[in-house]
Task: inverse folding
């Protein structure tokens, strides 16, 4: 992160974190595991607008891979689900840095038939197969089945916030893919500076990356095909903390189950698993030679994972619609909530909504009757304007 923030043309803490976390996830792939045979495989999506500076963290990761002899494990955009599978046949550990995640998100919503070879479906299966044997599709004239033992896929995807929010749907939130993602909204572009080169990596970065590239736990002649990762243990206080978190998330899951909230149930089902994965990544970063999962690792990972779950549920509440009309109502409310003092003039809302006058009035009437908004008068030195205010906001 430090190297990226010093050398990026537009440094951004969120993007630097995304790059560093995915690099750490990739370097430890197929080499360590923890309770429940969980691995460091991480799916991370950075929400970043154009010109934010999302290219530099990817360049850093590419240079680390190149200068440590692991360039063959680096991929960019997904051409097809079959391509992802074939990449894992060549090398069991892959880092994909995808700048077109918008297309994957759209495919999730359009793939009504759950096509077996679709990109989202393969990403779902690979995520849960990190500690298992993953079967590759059978090709024509292929005599023997092909399997990959303990495949590892780290995903560093980026998407623009607008297209990401537009792609959100209940299907996307409940099919399991969204619950596997760690989503970081990186915010505005940082202040510009004289950039450095990603090729001039710091010695300490290359030293640790090289150590991981050469680290082979276990023994035998087939470690590239059948790795024997090292088990990383929790300290006693860390074990207590993770148990408390598991019980907390189970309570939340049960509450969601009782009321039939499928979105919340899906989100809370993976929170403890995310915490363990993140704590393992933290431990490998803290001490790569003799890692152990400390209380500090669990505390950091818990805060991160809980924030991710709550953010998923928030996004579902403000962006996921049951039908097209509900979507327009949510869009209307979001526009008001983004405005200063949560008040917006009618003419500005009509420009933003791009609806016919009759459709616009139907949305307004519905939200007024639901108690979501109220008509108001906006006073200015020049004139008085009709507008709307979100109820309960002073």
Result:
């Amino acid at each position: 992160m430090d190297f990226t923030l010093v050398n990026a043309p537009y440094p951004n803490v969120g993007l630097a974190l995304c790059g560093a976390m995915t690099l750490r996830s990739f370097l430890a792939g197929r080499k360590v595991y923890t309770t429940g045979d969980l691995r460091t495989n991480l799916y991370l999506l950075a929400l970043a607008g154009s010109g934010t500076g999302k290219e530099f963290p990817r360049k850093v990761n590419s240079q680390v891979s190149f200068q440590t002899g692991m360039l063959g494990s680096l991929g960019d955009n997904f051409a097809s689900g079959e391509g992802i599978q074939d990449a894992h046949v060549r090398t069991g550990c892959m880092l994909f840095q995808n700048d077109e995640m918008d297309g994957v998100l759209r495919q999730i919503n359009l793939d009504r038939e759950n096509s077996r070879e679709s990109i989202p479906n393969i990403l779902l299966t690979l995520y849960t197969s990190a500690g298992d044997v993953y079967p590759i599709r059978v090709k024509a004239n292929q005599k023997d089945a092909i399997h990959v033992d303990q495949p590892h896929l780290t995903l560093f995807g980026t998407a623009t916030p607008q297209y990401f929010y537009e792609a959100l749907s209940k299907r996307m939130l409940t099919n399991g893919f969204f619950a596997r993602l760690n989503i970081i909204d990186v915010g505005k572009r940082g202040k510009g500076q004289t950039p450095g080169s990603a090729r001039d990596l710091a010695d300490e970065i290359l030293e640790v990356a090289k150590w991981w590239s050469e680290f082979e736990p276990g023994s035998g002649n087939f470690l590239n095909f059948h790795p024997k990762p090292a088990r990383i243990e929790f300290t006693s206080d860390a074990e207590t903390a993770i148990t408390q978190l598991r019980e907390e998330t189970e309570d939340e899951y049960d509450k969601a189950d009782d009321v039939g909230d499928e979105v919340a149930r899906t989100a809370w089902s993976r929170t403890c698993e995310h915490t363990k994965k993140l704590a393992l990544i933290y431990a490998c970063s803290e001490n790569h030679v003799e890692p152990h999962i400390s209380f500090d690792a669990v505390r950091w990972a818990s805060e991160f994972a809980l924030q991710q779950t709550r953010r998923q549920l928030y996004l579902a509440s403000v962006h996921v619609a049951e039908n097209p009309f509900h979507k327009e109502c949510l869009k209307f409310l979001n526009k008001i909530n983004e405005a200063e003092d949560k008040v917006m003039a009618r003419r500005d809302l009509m420009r933003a909504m791009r609806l016919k006058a009759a459709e616009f009035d139907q949305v307004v009437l519905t939200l007024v009757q639901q108690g979501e908004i109220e008509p108001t008068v906006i006073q200015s030195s020049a004139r008085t304007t009709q507008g709307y205010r979100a109820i309960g906001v002073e």
User: Anything to note?
Assistant: The chain has a mean pLDDT of 89.
